[in-house]
Amino acid sequence: MKYICIGKYINTHGIRGEIKIESYSDFDAERYKKGKTVYMLIEGAYQPFTVASFRKHKGHCLVSFEGKDNINDVEPYKGSMIFVKDEDRKPLGKGEFYRSDLIGLDVFDESHTHIGKILQVEETLGANLNLRILKEDGKEVLVPYVPDFIRNVDPERQEMTIHTMEGLL
Question: Does any domain span residue 64?
């Protein structure tokens, strides 16, 4: 069974068992819909939790779970990563990709010179995401995940082609 990380439990919220989640998903309302199951990775095992409530507050997801009615029920799990089963992912349109599908892709420039591999897809305070790329020389660089730089993504070949310009890399 494959699981996809959709967030991190970063803190409690109040005393009634609600938790604050740093989301890695673009589908929060769907992921945390009442009755849906999410999984926390706890001591190496994926433990199921059934969503009781969801709301957004100051840029974070606030979620409570069935049977977890107070802070003492959820406090031990603080810091856990939150997952869904891969089979529960929503199909995306053409040219759309899940962040997890981008991690590990080989990155090439337009002349097909290998630049490195994508280590991570990172949030920014702005409107776009950044790709953290480990270059051949061992250095890490950030490339904005915007059409001006991303020329082609081919998950089947595990490749991405980017437009480079002076100062980018």
Answer: yes
